[in-house]
Design a protein that fits this description.
The protein has 240 residues and is α/β, with parallel strands linked by helices. A hairpin with a 2-residue loop joins strand 6 (133-138) and strand 7. The protein has helices at residues 12-28, 41-48, 67-77, 95-99, 113-129, 176-183, 225-236, and strands at residues 2-8, 32-38, 55-59, 84-89, 105-108, 133-138, 141-146, 150-156, 159-164, 169-173, 188-192, 195-198, 202-205, 209-212, 217-219. The two termini are 26 Å apart.
C-alpha cells in the first residue's frame, strides 16, 4: 500500500519542513509513500478533481481560497469523506468552526516531528477501523457491511434500521444493546435508547442533538447527554 499525501501551505518552507518530517517518519515505518506540495488552495482543488489523496496537511490561512473553503469543496462539492485532513495554523481558535469538516488533527505552528507523527499514527488507526465489518442476520441469511459505511442505527418498533452513507437502508431484528456491543469500540455513540451514531459522520453536535453529514438531525436523550459529551471529548482527544 502506498500512502498519498498532499501538503498545502503558501509558506514553502513550511511545506518543505513537513515533507522532511514525513520522509523520516514513513521511511522509519517502512511505508511506501508519495508526497505532493501545493502553494495555494486553488492548485490543490484543481488537482483533487483529477486524483485522490489519503492525507492532506492543509494550512487554514491560505490567501484567496482559505483552508476552510478548500475543506468545504472537498467534503460538500467533491463529496469526499475518505481523505483525512490535518489542519495547520498559527492560531488556536478554529476548533468548532472546523469540526464540520471532520479533521484528523489540528496542528499549531511551530510544528514538530512528534505532532506530525501523531497524524500518521491516527491515520493507520482509522484505516484499520475502516476494515472492521458489522454482521447481522436478516431472515435466514447473514450479511456484512463495513463499519466505515454506516451512518447510524435506529430502532423502529421491533426492527433496527441501518443507514449507510450511500443512502441505502436495511433492517433486521436485534436489540440496540447487542448492536452497541458490536460497534462501541469503533467510535459509535449510543445517543438515545433507539439511536446509535457513527462519530466519523457527525457534522455538528449540540447539547441535545447531532447533525449527520446527510443533514439528518438526531436527538440526544436527556439521560445520556453528560456521558455523550464526555465520550465525544475523549474521541476528539484521541483517547478512545
Amino acid at each position: 500500500m502506498t500512502i498519498r499525501i498532499a501538503i498545502c501551505d503558501d509558506e514553502l518552507y513550511i511545506c518543505s519542513q513537513i515533507e522532511s518530517m514525513l520522509i523520516d517518519i514513513l521511511q522509519h515505518m517502512a511505508v511506501k509513500f508519495e508526497i505532493e506540495i501545493f502553494g495555494s488552495g486553488e492548485k490543490l482543488c484543481k488537482e483533487l478533481e483529477q486524483q485522490d489523496f489519503d492525507i492532506i496537511f492543509l494550512d487554514i490561512e491560505l490567501p484567496n481560497i482559505s483552508g476552510i473553503e478548500v475543506s468545504n469543496y472537498i467534503r460538500n462539492c467533491l463529496k469526499n469523506e475518505i481523505v483525512q485532513i490535518a489542519y495547520i495554523s498559527a492560531k488556536k481558535g478554529y476548533a468548532m468552526e472546523l469540526f464540520e469538516f471532520r479533521p484528523i488533527n489540528f496542528l499549531v505552528k511551530p510544528l514538530d516531528k512528534e505532532k506530525v507523527a501523531k497524524v500518521i499514527d491516527k491515520y493507520f488507526v482509522i484505516t484499520e477501523q475502516n476494515n472492521h465489518m458489522f454482521e447481522y442476520k436478516r431472515r435466514t441469511e447473514y450479511y456484512k457491511i463495513p463499519m466505515s459505511k454506516i451512518l447510524y442505527f435506529e430502532r423502529v418498533n421491533r426492527k433496527i434500521k441501518i443507514y449507510t452513507k450511500d443512502g441505502n437502508i436495511d433492517e433486521f431484528y436485534d436489540s440496540m444493546e447487542n448492536v452497541y456491543v458490536a460497534v462501541k469500540n469503533q467510535k459509535f455513540l449510543f445517543i438515545h435508547k433507539s439511536i446509535i451514531v457513527n462519530y466519523q459522520f457527525i457534522k455538528r453536535i449540540a447539547y441535545d442533538e447531532v447533525v449527520m453529514i446527510d443533514d439528518t438531525i438526531l436527538p440526544i436523550s436527556q439521560s445520556r447527554r453528560k456521558a455523550i459529551k464526555m465520550m465525544y471529548m475523549k474521541i476528539r482527544k484521541g483517547e478512545v
